[in-house]
What we know:
- There is one protein chain.
- This protein is an alpha/beta fold.
- The chain has a single domain (about 15-245), classed as Aldolase class I (TIM Barrel), CATH 3.20.20.70.
- It has helices spanning about 40-50, 70-80, 95-100, 110-115, 115-125, 160-170, 190-200, 215-225, 235, and strands spanning about 15-20, 25-30, 35-40, 55-60, 85, 105-110, 130-140, 145-150, 155, 175-180, 205-210, 230, 235-240, 245.
- The strands form 2 sheets. The chain has an 8-stranded parallel β-barrel with strand order 1-4-5-6-7-10-11-12, surrounded by 6 helices. A two-stranded antiparallel sheet has the order 13-14.
- Helix 1 (about 40-50) packs parallel to helix 2 (about 70-80) and helix 6 (about 160-170) packs across helix 7 (about 190-200).
- The chain is globular and about 40 Å long.
- Residues about 1-5 have low confidence and may be disordered.
Amino acid sequence: MPYREADLTPQVRVIPALTIVDDSAFRTRRFRKRSYVGDPVNAVKLFSDKGADELMVIDISGEPFHPGRVAIIRSIASEALMPISYGGGIRDIEAIRTVIRNGYEKAVVNTALFDDPDMVREAVREFGSQALVASIETSRGWFGDRLVLRDSGARKTRHRLADWAKSCEDLGCGEVLLTCVDRDGSMSGYDLDAIEEVSCAVTVPVIAMGGAGTLIHLRDAVSRGASAVAAGSMFVYFGPRRAVLVNYPSGGLDGDAPR
């Protein structure tokens, strides 16, 4: 049974992350290989029933946000009994307005941090810092250096990880979502050094994502400074064959029984 290894303190948010394209949910490996895992609306119902603390929905199509997405994000939000955030293609203030009008507490931004920081500042003024999450993608380079990536991990940038995290905080973003691309889908554990580096660089909460497979991994991330822990594969797969099974640790954040 999953989630027998350890427990977590009640203060830590444990966040399922659903990655979607159109009206389907997928899991990825290193942001590349996609595996279909079902209907995202049904998954949200199950996470709501299991008492998830928060939920994150990320569109991985690579397209800018457009009106065609409204129906699915509205359907997803209608089943969410927990705070919910949305990211994917958010490049203008109207996209953020649309997301928030349709039931989401937070918008997750990535490309706009590089290309339109003034828009991010405007969004902070309009909605408050708590509504903006800065998504930072990182991986190890050939020589062990830590890279800041963009465009779903497709492009390298010249930014240093800690400096870029501080820049995102300076724009007014109320949280940092740190995703380690080379750990994505591996279920082998987070990049703990990256978590510590970013957590030491900023004063806002850091959400760790990329690599979680057990509760021990989640606890390790918290021990290195993460204020919240997010996972995708861990909450939709079960067993060595990765059977699709939506699951979440029950009994609160310090419980250990699955449901």
